[in-house]
Design a protein that fits this description.
876 residues, 6 domains, 34 helices, 10% strand, elongated, disordered N terminus, WYL_dom
């Protein structure tokens, strides 16, 4: 046998019974051991919490799969029918044949839909290690049975009560004999046979029907109230005749001194064998909305509307960055944005506060805004914003949409309160919800399955989501259905972002979802047909070094796989224009989005008056002065307007620029603490006489100079409010040019999603984990040759103990023959482990070997090997 070529199947077979027939698994660990690598990979992919940390062997994996926390998490990810199947197994005999389970789900009359869907549900439960065993001995893991089985404290979801045997435990033998005699059964000699006789009666359809035919009508009414649960009812010390009739015949058995219970076998007879009132084997369909039929069958209308909103989204983010360009609002001590600053931001963006919170979270999730980390911490755009702004519009949009899809941030929670009564703030630390990305992807995939151009009926969409994850809903904050709220927010946020248009999924929105269904195909759960066992379709690792895995992953912010979405959106976005239309009323109309240099200059020279398909800018003395303060001369402004206007520059606008330029800088303000100088002393006299300047506390120092106790900035602002156009000057007497100071945070990475549990494992981790678990299991279960008692060889999985000479001789022999051996090893930290190795070279006190446990070549000091044992002949 060559190095590293140990036959795993032969080693596993060495532990099976003689005769070559694999026995039925007796434990979950044995059931997992019988799986192929693909089955193990599917389990680990479906339940990633089992990988933290990677189990040492299959026994540890089975133990971890049966812990309460892991089972609860797995149950929460079941769809409604798979959960109903697990609930039926919880009230079935343990183990239960498939035929018994089928009867509990379909009833005596059967249900074609149940028969078609049940194999898929059992396959899901088996795949996730919630059920194990063959079809003749289906076993629900003990923890799941305890969680789902009925009890007085935790009634079963099926509404069934305890069995006859459970309900009569502790009942006196005399009372048992009285019950079976009243029910028309012969008396027995012991309580066990009496319970068996009563159970047989309740499970015999013919005899049970005959007994109920003799019941009073009022007694049947009592049974009708209990049959679908809850099965418990209160009784008085002297119950009414109908209750007494049922109690005397065991149809109602005492649960406590004041309560009775309908035994499970009797309830199943009344239900015609069905564990659930309404099994739901088929997921409810998502139907198109009846109120929005204009776009159905007209995808071009949807795409145009979505593209228009996508352009608005980009413009809104740009507006937000300009608003915070010189440094945004301060960060609250507890993190996030204050209510007052959120209101100011909403007013600047001209949107409601809740919508403003959404745009803030989208920009934050894409890494475009962040905190600066200074002592007086503030929000500001990041350097990544400048890189993002330089991209083509379609690529900028895909960055935003990708960040929104992958983010766990939940803007819809802004303004609500947490469990401690604290208001959740925009950009705050408590807005992450791990279910958000899953719900967003799922909602969009369901929209993708509707006919082209159709928007969903919200009620049908929520019904589908509740069917798919019936246990994942209750919000800790409000007790409301969080998934339903997330779905509603997803629909509105997708519309704001331009992923949908008029409520229907756009073509570029569909391109964000790899493998989305074709329009008009109501896509089954997780892409698998409901009448086939669902599999994760995880390929087994090909061998040492294999690291491929075909599982899908959610889109990440900035994902380059969104190139298709950008290509579809780009033709629908308006091309930037390089001109404006000047009008005589001192306004300019931009007939489309402006090229960035033109837009930046015009934003300084004029104020935005209205937005829409065409943006209207208004020129005012203040806006022209702003451009002059930024270093522009009147001649520069005239040349700029002539170069970029398709209409002649109106005379009133030219006069406005010249008039403001003529007055601009006529007054000079510097630092004395502050002074005003002007060559025209009459102007200074006018300022001194103006009562509005009293707060500046001006006094004349010379015919052309006034001094003030105010600082230069306050003096400049005060004079401008009085109608003058002063200019600041330096200590050398030169005019200071004031430009908007662009403030950026240090380099920041976009916030990582915060999932509720461990993230889905990638290909490398899955492949390595399966190999490590297999190798560890091999080391703990492989058959070994019996050693003399004096050698100290371990048996039954104990660490082997051999002398140093025996250890050296055995590994040298294994290196010469190319065989594998089993060793006990203690590392430098004192941790002991068992390993199967194939020695290659032994020299200098070290053995170099291929370690099947680690799936790599390693070198071990001989003095750290506690002992060695040869593998059994049939294992090699």
């Amino acid at each position: 046998m060559g190095t590293g070529e140990l036959d795993r199947e032969a080693l596993v077979a060495a532990g099976t019974e003689a005769g070559g027939v694999t026995p039925a698994p007796r434990t979950l660990a044995e059931a997992l051991r019988a799986r192929g690598d693909e089955g193990l990979a599917a389990l680990l992919h479906a339940r990633p919490d089992l990988l933290v940390p990677v189990p040492s062997d299959l026994t540890q994996l089975a133990t971890r799969a049966g812990t309460r926390a892991s089972v609860v998490r797995a149950l929460e990810r079941l769809d409604r029918f798979a959960l109903q199947t697990a609930e039926a197994l919880a009230v079935a005999p343990d183990p239960a044949p498939y035929s018994v389970l089928h009867g509990l789900m379909g009833g005596d009359e059967g249900d074609p839909d149940v028969s078609a869907a049940l194999p898929r549900a059992v396959g899901v439960l088996r795949e996730q290690a919630l059920v194990w065993g063959d079809d003749e001995r289906l076993r629900l893991v003990r923890t799941a049975r305890e969680l789902l089985a009925p009890s007085p404290q935790h009634p079963s979801p099926t509404g069934l009560g305890p069995t006859v045997a459970e309900a009569t435990a502790g009942m006196s033998p005399t009372r048992l004999q009285e019950i079976i005699a009243t029910a028309g059964l012969p008396t027995t000699h012991d309580p066990v046979s009496a319970v068996a006789a009563l159970t047989d009666l309740f499970t015999d359809r013919e005899r049970m029907g005959a007994l109920l035919d003799t019941a009073p009508m009022d007694a049947l009414g009592v049974l009708d109230r209990l049959v679908w649960g809850p099965p418990y009812g209160e009784v008085t010390p002297n119950p009414a005749p109908p209750v007494r009739w049922l109690r005397d015949r065991g149809l109602l058995l005492p649960a406590t001194a004041r309560t009775v219970v309908l035994p499970r076998e009797a309830a199943l007879h009344l239900r015609a064998g069905r564990a659930h009132r309404a099994p739901e084997p088929v997921p409810p369909a998502v139907t198109p909305s009846r109120t929005a039929t204009f776009t159905e069958g007209r995808p071009q209308v949807v795409d145009s509307a979505a593209a228009s909103q996508a352009y608005t989204a980009l413009a809104t983010i740009d507006e937000l960055a300009k608003e915070w360009n010189e440094g945004g609002p301060a960060v609250l001590r507890a993190g996030g944005l204050s209510v007052r600053d959120l209101k100011r931001t909403a007013a600047a963006l001209d949107v409601p506060e809740q919508v403003a919170a959404f745009w803030l979270e989208v920009a934050y999730g894409a890494g475009l805004i962040a905190t600066d980390g200074e002592a007086d911490e503030r929000y500001a755009p990041t350097p990544a914003y400048d890189e993002w702004a330089a991209l083509p519009a379609a690529e900028r949009w895909t960055r935003l949409a990708g960040a929104w899809l992958a983010s766990t941030r939940t803007p819809g929670l802004v303004g609500s309160q947490d469990t401690k009564g604290r208001t959740l703030a925009a950009l705050g630390p408590d807005l992450d919800r791990g279910a958000a990305p899953e719900v967003r992807h799922r909602v969009l995939r369901l929209l993708a399955g509707l006919p082209a151009g159709a928007s969903p009926d919200p009620d049908s969409l929520l019904a589908r989501l509740r069917w798919e994850r019936p246990l994942r809903g209750a919000s800790k904050e409000t007790g409301a259905d969080l998934r339903a709220r997330l779905a509603g927010w997803t629909l509105s946020e997708a519309e704001l972002l331009g992923v949908t248009g008029r409520g229907a999924l756009s073509a570029h929105g569909r391109a964000l979802l790899p493998g989305a269904p074709a329009p008009g195909t109501d896509h089954p759960v997780d892409g698998h047909a409901p009448d086939h066992p669902r599999r994760a379709h995880v390929p087994a690792p090909a061998g040492p070094g294999a690291d491929t895995f075909s599982g899908r992953r959610p889109a990440q912010a900035g994902d380059t796989t969104h190139a298709g979405a950008a290509a579809l959106l780009a033709p629908l976005l308006p091309e930037p224009v390089d001109h404006v239309l000047l009008q005589a009323d001192l306004t300019a109309v931009a007939p489309g989005p402006l090229q960035r240099p033109l837009a930046d200059t015009l934003a300084v020279l004029a104020d935005v008056e209205s937005k829409g398909g065409a943006t209207v800018y208004r020129f005012t003395p203040g806006s022209v002065r702003r451009a002059l303060d930024a270093g522009q001369a009147a001649a520069d402004l005239h040349a700029f307007l002539e170069a970029h206007s398709r209409t002649p520059v109106p005379q009133p606008l030219a006069y406005l620029i010249d008039d403001v330029a003529r007055k601009h800088g006529h007054l000079r303000v510097g630092a004395a603490s502050a002074y005003v100088r002007c060559d025209d002393d009459t102007v200074l006299g006018e300022i001194l006489a103006d009562k509005r300047g009293a707060s500046l506390r001006l006094r004349r120092l010379a015919p052309t100079v006034l001094a003030s106790q105010a600082d230069p900035a306050a003096l400049l602002e005060g004079l401008r409010s009085m109608g003058f156009a002063p200019a600041a000057e330096s200590a050398e007497g030169d005019v200071l040019i004031t430009r908007a100071h662009t403030y950026r945070t240090p380099a920041r990475t976009a916030p990582a999603p915060v999932p509720e549990g461990p993230p889905a494992p990638d290909a490398t981790l899955l492949g390595a984990a399966v190999r490590a678990i297999r190798a560890g299991d091999l080391a703990s279960t492989v058959a070994r040759k019996d050693e003399p008692a004096t050698s100290g060889a371990a048996g039954n999985g104990d660490m082997p103990r051999t002398s140093a000479a025996e250890t050296l001789a055995t590994v040298q022999a294994a290196a010469m023959t190319g065989s594998a051996v089993w060793i006990g090893y203690v590392n430098a930290e004192g941790a002991a482990s068992q390993r199967v190795i194939a020695p290659v070279r032994v020299e200098g006190g070290f053995v170099t070997a291929y370690d099947h446990t680690a799936d790599e070549v390693r070198t071990y000091p001989l003095h750290r090997i506690t002992g060695v044992a040869e593998l059994a002949d049939d294992a090699g």
